[in-house]
């Protein structure tokens, strides 16, 4: 009898821990309107670094630490990748960022999914949508979004790590305006 009680107690404790982690992530995400961060992005073993500001819903501005002055900007509808010599404009809905930058979408997915805890450092949620496989990662201690991994329709693996996160700052009104062509 004692043994059954102990097993039941352990199962309930694990369930409560899991639920409380999910609740804390949801609460933290709900309270986040925007955040700035440093990033390291690895796409098919090509590493790029820089700084970004993300604002919900679906806006992001990234400046890469490259000599070609690369920036990535989304105004919530379109995304531009611009360098000193090139300019690419895409509909945001045709990229995995459309889902990653959508706080309400993330909240719905997280609410339905079971998390995977990695080394008591990271919390991971994995989902597939629109031919994309997406993993989002949260910090185990702060519950902040700290990265994502996507596999796109061309089977390109993209891993993005976030660091030095600063939340809910006052942002410039024009930060997410799409840049003009050169």
TL;DR of this structure?
The protein has 182 residues and is of the alpha+beta class.
Summarize the structure in words.
This protein is α+β, with helices and mostly antiparallel strands and about 180 residues long. It has one domain: Clam (outer membrane lipoprotein receptor (LolB), chain A), CATH 2.50.20. The chain contains 3 helices and 11 strands. It has helices spanning about 1-30, 95-100, 105-110; strands spanning about 35-45, 45-55, 60-65, 70-75, 80, 85-90, 115-120, 120-130, 130-140, 145-150, 155-165. The protein has an 11-stranded antiparallel beta sheet, with no helix packed on it. Helix 1 (about 1-30) packs antiparallel against helix 3 (about 105-110). The relative contact order is 0.19.
The spatial strand order of the largest sheet comes to: 6-5-4-3-2-1-11-10-9-8-7
Largest sheet: 11 strands, antiparallel
Q: Please indicate the percent range of residues in DSSP E strands (runs of 2 or more).
A: 35-45%
| Average pLDDT | 89
Tally of DSSP helical segments = 3
What is the 3D shape? globular
Termini separation: 76 Å
Radius of gyration: 19 Å
């Amino acid at each position: 009898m004692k043994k059954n009680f102990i097993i039941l107690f352990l199962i309930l404790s694990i369930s409560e821990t899991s639920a409380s982690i999910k609740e804390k992530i949801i609460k933290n995400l709900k309270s986040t309107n925007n955040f700035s961060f440093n990033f390291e992005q690895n796409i098919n073993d090509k590493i790029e670094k820089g700084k970004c500001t993300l604002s919900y819903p679906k806006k992001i501005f990234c400046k890469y630490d490259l000599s070609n002055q690369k920036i990535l900007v989304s105004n919530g509808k379109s995304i531009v990748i611009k360098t000193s010599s090139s300019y690419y404009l895409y509909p945001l809905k045709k990229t995995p960022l459309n889902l990653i930058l959508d706080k309400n979408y993330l909240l719905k997915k997280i609410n339905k999914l079971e998390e995977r805890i990695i080394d008591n450092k990271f919390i991971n949620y994995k989902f597939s949508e629109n031919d994309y496989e997406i993993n989002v990662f949260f910090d185990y201690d702060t519950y902040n979004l700290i990265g994502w991994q996507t596999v796109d329709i061309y089977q390109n693996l993209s891993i993005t790590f976030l660091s030095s996160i600063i939340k809910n700052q006052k942002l410039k009104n024009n930060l997410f305006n799409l840049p003009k062509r050169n």
